[in-house]
Every structure is written in C-alpha cells, then in structure tokens.
Amino acid sequence: MALKAFAAQVEEGREGKDGKPSVGPVYRNLLSKKEYPPLDRDVTTSWDIFRYEIISKSTRNLSLY
Within 13 Å and on the Cβ side, how many CA atoms surround 17? Predict the structure, then answer.
C-alpha cells in the first residue's frame, strides 16, 4: 500500500549561523505547492486568523475582545 502525501516542501531547511538556531524545512498543503492560494499579506500569525474569522463574526460576544 502506497502512502499518500498531504504536504509539499516549499522551502529548504537552513543551518544555524552566528549563534542563530538552524531552521527546518517548511511544508504546506499540496495546493500551496505552486503558491495557490496566494498568501494574505495581512495574516502573519494564528492570532490574525482568529481575529479575522472569529471575532469579526462574533460582534456580540464581548469576552473575545
């Protein structure tokens, strides 16, 4: 039985230099292999995703602010 791949490597890993730690390779969804869909420049953290998707739709729940 062959294993299915669900992620594609989009960036190589880098070795640490000048006291900075090494960085492993970057993997994304298979659809993202050719930059589809394009990345949103305003979203850089998981908090941004939460804020845009949840808080913007839950304007009555003040505990989220």
Answer: 3
